[in-house]
Amino acid sequence: MQHEEECPPAWFGEWLGEAGLGLDVVLAHEGAAVPTRLDGYDALLVLGGGMGADDDDAVAWLPATKRLIRSVVARRQPFLGICLGHQLAAAALGGQVVTNPAGRASGLTPVRLTDAGETDRLLSAVPEGAVAVQWNNDIVATLPPGAVRLASAPDGTVQAARFGAAAWGVQFHPEASPEVFRGWTLKPSTPQTHHDGRPVRHIPADVEAAREGLRWAWCRLAHRFARLVTSPVSVA
User: Fold this and answer.
1) What is the pLDDT of residues 158-212, one digit of tens each?
2) How many H-runs (helices) and E-runs (strands) does the chain carry?
């Protein structure tokens, strides 16, 4: 599920293809209908976007997307939400999403797995010391009932969570190449100053310098997700 032209599957689509999975991208921002169920598909991937998880009145497809997420989680079908997708899952399942009081998270961020994350079927694929790209104003302030925190950001907020038997969300962007990230920083609506005072225009150079490390870390997550989709019992 894609919400904006600037937020494509990017690297994640490449890596899922390497693992033998095909993507049928629903371009919701172009008016494509959101399915009511996942019939005929093996998994649901919901990408990021600049809108808020509770912007139902302003963004016509968000209510349908949240209904689809609830259906997929209830039927124990594989789901992964990225950034906005993670927030939509939290909101759809009874959690709370708010503006981060610490300000926008942008650029490279360490991924800190919890004890639950280190043994999780999906997040345990993340190598120690991994950093990820983050670009978000909002955070999941309260996880839905039964959800488990799998990683925490440096500011203490939820960085990854498990929402159900085969449902996960990550606040960061494992799919984002340096080219995709640079496009976000060039949008007219983007603040020009990072929360630490650095100009935002300097951050893409950091992401570019980390290119190979990002690919090495996050292809592992994509390939693990693909294994869970194609042979869920085989992954401990």
Assistant:
1) 999 999 999 999 999 999 999 999 999 987 666 666 555 667 778 999 999 999 9
2) 7, 10
> What pLDDT score was predicted for residue 234?
45
Q: How far apart are CA 184 and CA 167, in angstroms?
A: 27
Cα distances (Å, whole numbers) of residue 217 to 11, 70, 132, 191, 222? 12, 29, 9, 28, 9
pTM of this structure? 0.94
Cβ contact 20:57 at 8 Å: no
pLDDT at 189: 67
The residues assigned a catalytic role are 83, 173, 175
Distance, CA of 30 to CA of 101 (rounded, Å): 32
Beta bridge partners of 169: 81, 161
Where do the domains of the chain lie, and which CATH numbers do they carry? Answer: 10-234 (3.40.50.880)
d(CA 72, CA 165): 11
